[in-house]
Structures are given as C-alpha cells and as structure tokens.
Amino acid sequence: MKRLRTIYAIVYDMLNQSGFGWNDETKMIIVDSDDMWNEYIKMSSHPNAKDYRNAQILLLDKLALAFVKERATSKGVVAPADVIEQLEEENNNDESYWGVADCLGVAKDVFDDSRSLMNELKKMDLTEQEHFAATNKILSISHRLHMFWGSDDTDRLAFVKSLI
C-alpha cells in the first residue's frame, strides 16, 4: 500500500508541475522538453521519479480514486513530501491494505508476489545493495513484477541484472 501511495504521490507531484501533462491514451506522463524533465529530476524529492519518464501508469485513475481523499485537507492540497512523510509514519493494517487493493481492482496474488520478491532475489547471486536496487526497480513500474515472475530462473537473473 505504501508503494502504491508513493507512486501516486510521485505522479501527482509531476502532474502539478508547469510543463508536465498526462496522455490518457498511452497512460503516460508527457513533458514539454528534455531540459524540463532533467531539471525536475535534479530538484525532485522523489528518488524514483526518473523511472516514470516513459513508463505506462495503467492504474493512475484507480490510484487517484483510492488516494485522493488522503491528499486533500481543509486548507487545500497536501504537499507530496508531506504525504510520503505521513506514509512512513503509518502502520499498515490489513483492512486498509485490502480496501485499497479492492478499490484498485488488483488481485491479492499481485500483492503477495510483491511481498515475495525480496526472498526470491536473495536466492540470486547478488550483493545486498543489488537486492535493494533490483527490488526498487522492479516494484517501481508495475509490469516489471509480471515480467519477473513470468520468467524462468535464468531469465529472471538476466532481467534483474539488466535493471541494476
């Protein structure tokens, strides 16, 4: 749930920047220029923002439905950095976790696959730093998790090494 909230916070922040927009047909962020993108990435408080340049974000509409209430206050919109700080302080409970999963229409097995990823990566000949980098890269874009679990052991290792 934290990861989904963080994805929404990153994308929400980008889409609220001048020069950034959304292509609803491709489900991708669009930006006016490479220079604008590079400047945003340098200044962004989101270390994974760079991963969203050419990534499809198929669930954005559903993420917005699930998390829009958390982003608004009586004083206006909450800053993305504040949302991330709040997420780090929260304790996940199963009720809210599965409530978001239901809202997003994501099956329980997808969440279970995400939770099992680190254990599977530990079986590979990777350093601890590479484990964390691979986990971050795989979970930052939804289709990568499907690619990981859809591969056999040899292809899985090659896929992971291509990301790190």
UniProtKB/TrEMBL annotation:
It comes from the Eukaryota. This is Uncharacterized protein.
